[in-house]
Amino acid sequence: MWHVLLSFSGLVAVIQLLFLPFFPESPPYLLLQKEDKAGCLKAMKQLWGEGNYQTEFDDLMKEKAITKGTKIMNVLEVLRERSVYPQLCTMLLLLLSLQLCGLKIFVTANLQESIIPYVSLGVSISELIAIIFCSSIIDRFGRRTLLCGGYLLMALILVLLETSLLLSDQFLWLRYCSVILIFLFIVAYGLGP
Length: 193
Prior knowledge:
Elements: H1 2-19, H2 27-33, H3 37-48, H4 54-67, H5 75-80, H6 85-98, H7 103-108, H8 116-141, H9 143-166, H10 173-191
Helix pairs in contact: 1-9, 2-3, 6-8, 8-9, 8-10, 9-10
């Protein structure tokens, strides 16, 4: 019954996708990135209700003044920064260990046992590439666009994955489609959520 559990995560993604457009952008994002003071105050009222948020707004303005001279680092600059190595190692270990959870899907797809570790390694690498790519485009497209697009792609891919796994006994080529869909799911997850 693991495929039902997998489908449930798709249902949750669809629900989040339906409600996400009704939420405002983050006030710090509106003020610090887009420099939209009116939008920031409007988002604060929308998120926290009516009230005076001048103190919070002033704090954000102070943060903006502090970070004004700070250079925003790209992915390669972050990777070269020695002070973040412990956090990077922790994240890499977490990403690699998460891939061990997906081995059951590859066994269900009737892949040869000798290639399953390589496919799992490929999934880890594709997830890492997707996360690096997302961190470089998030400022251009915004979090909301990436979240909506990611959840929409994930829901679509989960439907296709469920279908391909159910029909893989009748059509052998669908087993390989399942593996490709898993790669695409990981990429969609890395780009969005």
